[in-house]
Fold Arabinose 5-phosphate isomerase.
Amino acid sequence: MPNQIDFQKVAIETLSIEQHALEVLAHQIDERFTKACEIILQCKGRLVVTGMGKSGHIGRKMAATFASTGTPSFFMHPGEAGHGDLGMLVRGDVLIAISNSGKSDEIMMLMPLIKHLEVPLITISGDDKGPMPQNADVALTLGNIQEACPLGLAPTSSTTATLALGDALAVALLEARGFTADDFAMSHPAGALGKRLLLHVKHLMHTGDELPKVSPDTPMNKVLYEISNKRLGLTTIVDKNDTLQGIFTDGDLRRLIDRQQGFDVNLPVSEVMVKNPSTISQEARAVEALEKMNEKKINQFIVVDDANKVIGVISMHDLIQAGVN
């Protein structure tokens, strides 16, 4: 039978120990951290991260974070590196090697080749006593931290601190590079964030033959045909230069019928069109268009250029279909 324990108490104690580990780590941030950032910023190649076991798992996440925040990076397994994968590492790269003890045999076996390639080495370890930090250009340390594991064996606080140190490096480099949300979206095009930041009105709007347009003197029977034919629930009304004069929508038609109990099909649309309709720029983000549609309680925007010429129409259906939310 398993021991009867207070699970919540153990959880809180574990988090408290790991929180203290981060406090210890904060005191390890000094000129070594600055030098590590400078080396990575000067890197002409890629930032390669390596580590065995749990350190390797943390290293993979670190490499992914670096890569998505403007620092080209990948993970190299040190065991596989000794059997050919060291070819991933070339002159011009920078290597981050992780080992809490600073004594990883698999990484130390690679040391002669790392030095031969003249690849700058940044190590992350508990202290600077081991052979790895002794061979490093910069030896980052976690400090004297206690593992949350009661046996003192399973990497817990040390991996948490290592991960946090990797995040600190990534964020410092991100800010130094002037990395923006748009830059971040470029490496996340398939995600929700990518759609929010990369999709603009111009990517989704209807243009050319799909764009409903009539002149102000167009009779209503032809206006209704244009609305039905283009299937966007409206038509724009433009002058001979395509400058926007107004719009007429399905909703306007229903209101007109309710108000007049029918209407003259030869009536020019200029007499019933909505003047000064809501418009948007083609450079606006798609998510901005959706937010403004919800705010104004409308289903479409007329897209105009700087001269107020009609260049497109975008609908809420287009935005939802594209996964903008």
The chain has a mean pLDDT of 90.
